[in-house]
C-alpha cells in the first residue's frame, strides 16, 4: 500500500509536472508574446525627378541702331594756276588811260595802284619783270634808267621812274600799255567798243575823222594807225594792211618805248 501510495504520488507528481508544464505553457502562451519580427521592406520609391524642360531664355534681341555714317565729301577747291587771264567786259582802253572794271587807271597813276586795279579786273599777273634796265628791256628802249613791265597775258602795263609827259622824275608811274592779242585776255576793247580783229573801217566809224593811217616803218605792207597822237598822250597800233578791210592787230596807248 505504501508502494502504491508512493507510485500514486509519483504519478501525481508526474501529472502535476505535466499539468503544470501545460499550464505554464498555456500561461506562457497567454502572457508571453513572442516578438513579432516585422520585416519592413521599405521600397524606396524610385523618385524620378522629371525636370521640367528648361524653357530656353528668350533670345536676347540686341537692337543695334544702324549707324549711318554720312561722310560729307571734302571738296578741296584749288584755284588753278593760270598763265592766261580772262578780261572783264568793263576793261576798256583809251588815249588817256584804262577803265579797269570800276577803277579808272589814268596815265601817270602810281605803279602799285595801277597794278592792283588791273589785277582786280584781269586776275593775277602772268609776268612782273620788276625794275630792270630801261635801255635793254624786252619792250624796247624805254624812258630810263629803269622800267617795269607787268603782263596779264598779252596785255602789258609799263611803269617808269623817269620824267614823262605824265609825271615827274623819281616817281614810279604808269606811262604806257600794249595789247596785242584779242584772245589773251579776251574782251578788252576801246571805250568806243573797237576790239582787236575789227577792221580799219570799224575803227574809222567809231572815231570819225580822227584816225590817221600810215605805213609801218619796219614793213610797208603793215599799217600803222593812230588816234589823237600827241607828245603827251595818244592811242595807236598796227593793222594787217592799209585798206579799210584790214584787221587791227594791236591797240596801244601812252608814250611807249622806242626800238
Number of helices: 3
Tell me the total number of β-strands: 13
From N to C, what is the helix and strand string?
HEEEHEEEEEEHEEEE
Overall average residue pLDDT = 77
Question: What key phrases describe this protein's structure?
Answer:
globular, 3 helices, 13 strands, nine-stranded antiparallel β-sheet, alpha+beta, 259 residues
Explained architecture:
This protein is 19% helix and 21% strand. The chain is built from 3 helices and 13 strands; from the N terminus they run αβββαββββββαββββ. The radius of gyration is 67 Å and the shape is globular. The model is unreliable at 1-83 (pLDDT under 50).
Please outline the helices and strands.
Blueprint: H1 2-31, E1 92-93, E2 97-100, E3 103-106, H2 111-122, E4 127-128, E5 132-133, E6 146-152, E7 155-160, E8 173-179, E9 189-190, H3 200-206, E10 211-215, E11 223-227, E12 235-239, E13 251-254
Parallel strand pairs: 1-9
Antiparallel strand pairs: 1-2, 2-3, 4-6, 5-6, 6-7, 7-8, 8-13, 10-11, 11-12, 12-13
Amino acid at each position: 500500500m505504501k508502494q502504491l501510495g508512493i507510485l500514486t504520488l509519483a504519478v501525481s507528481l508526474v501529472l502535476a509536472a505535466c499539468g503544470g508544464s501545460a499550464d505554464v505553457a498555456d500561461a506562457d502562451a497567454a502572457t508571453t508574446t513572442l516578438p513579432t519580427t516585422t520585416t519592413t521592406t521599405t521600397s524606396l520609391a524610385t523618385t524620378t525627378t522629371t525636370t521640367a524642360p528648361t524653357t530656353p531664355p528668350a533670345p536676347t534681341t540686341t537692337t543695334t541702331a544702324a549707324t549711318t555714317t554720312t561722310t560729307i565729301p571734302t571738296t578741296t577747291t584749288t584755284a588753278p594756276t593760270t598763265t592766261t587771264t580772262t578780261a572783264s567786259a568793263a576793261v576798256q582802253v583809251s588815249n588817256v588811260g584804262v577803265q579797269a572794271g570800276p577803277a579808272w587807271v589814268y596815265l601817270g597813276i602810281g605803279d602799285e595802284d595801277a597794278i592792283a586795279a588791273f589785277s582786280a579786273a584781269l586776275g593775277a599777273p602772268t609776268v612782273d619783270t620788276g625794275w630792270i634796265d630801261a635801255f635793254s628791256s624786252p619792250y624796247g628802249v624805254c624812258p630810263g634808267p629803269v622800267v617795269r613791265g607787268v603782263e596779264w597775258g598779252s596785255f602789258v602795263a609799263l611803269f617808269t621812274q623817269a620824267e614823262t609827259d605824265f609825271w615827274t622824275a623819281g616817281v614810279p608811274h604808269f606811262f604806257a600799255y600794249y595789247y596785242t592779242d584779242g584772245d589773251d585776255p579776251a574782251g578788252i576793247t576801246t571805250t568806243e567798243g573797237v576790239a582787236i580783229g575789227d577792221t580799219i573801217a570799224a575803227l574809222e566809224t567809231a572815231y570819225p575823222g580822227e584816225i590817221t593811217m600810215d605805213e609801218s616803218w619796219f614793213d610797208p605792207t603793215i599799217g600803222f594807225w593812230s588816234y589823237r597822237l600827241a607828245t603827251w598822250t595818244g592811242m595807236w597800233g598796227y593793222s594787217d594792211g592799209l585798206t579799210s578791210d584790214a584787221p587791227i592787230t594791236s591797240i596801244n596807248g601812252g608814250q611807249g618805248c622806242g626800238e
